[in-house]
Amino acid sequence: MVLRFILRLLTNNDHLVQRLSESYPIRRAAQWVVVFFYRGKGFIEDNKLKNKITPEQFRSFVKRFSENIKTEIKQGKDQFKK
What we know:
- By secondary structure, the chain is mainly α.
- It folds into two domains: 1-50, no CATH class; 52-82.
- It has four helices and no strands.
- It has helices at 2-11, 14-21, 24-47, 55-81.
- The longest helix has 27 residues, at 55-81.
- The radius of gyration is 18 Å and the shape is extended.
């Protein structure tokens, strides 16, 4: 609850948002998002996957992907603790 309040307060601060958007890590992250978006779009168009993937298959893919990310993060944390 308190974290949500702090985040809302920070995101409503125009000066802070402007400074963050001009920072290198945020710009670089935005560039990577655009790169992955267009690579994925190109991959789908090249392999004609638009009609082959059903919404259920896509949901299961997203679920498996998120589970894999969570397990990898957990393994990374465990390795960091050791």
